[in-house]
Design brief:
7 strands
Length: 141
């Protein structure tokens, strides 16, 4: 069976490092699936989940990735992300609090028509919703 190495790295360090059968991520142009022996590619990622079908378990790992770049070469899929969290590591309560803060900030900035603050609030909201969505895929590993 073919497999590849999947690494997810942030400025804080290595978030994920496992052998996998497949990776599904959300690139700027849409969803992309990576299998072993994929041709070399570099794509920018959006704020979204990355799903990894590991070799050693019969389930997917979910990782909340908040932007970055994915490079695939020689059966290594490397994701360099601004930030990333595995489903098992997400503090759901904190994610809901961040979502509420972002929604409130978005309401305030829209009321005063501040586009730069509004954009930051939208990004914060997308990150919080992404973390909440990924957290629903927690498991015991």
């Amino acid at each position: 069976m073919s497999e590849m190495q999947v690494n997810i790295v942030t400025p804080a360090g290595i978030v994920y490092n496992h052998r996998a059968r497949s990776v599904i991520a959300k690139a700027v142009d849409g969803e992309i699936g990576i299998l072993p022996n994929h041709m070399p590619i570099i794509v920018p990622l959006t704020i979204h989940s990355v799903r990894v079908q590991r070799v050693s378990i019969d389930a997917e790992d979910w990782i909340a990735v908040n932007g970055g770049v994915m490079e695939v070469r020689d059966n290594v899929c490397s994701i360099i992300a601004d930030s990333a969290e595995r489903a098992r590591d997400i503090d759901v309560e904190r994610a809901f609090e961040a979502k509420q803060r972002a929604e409130e900030e978005l309401r305030k900035t829209e009321a005063i028509e501040n586009k730069s603050h509004s954009k930051r609030a939208e990004i914060s909201l997308r990150k919080a919703v992404n973390r909440i969505t990924v957290s629903k895929h927690k498991k015991g590993n």
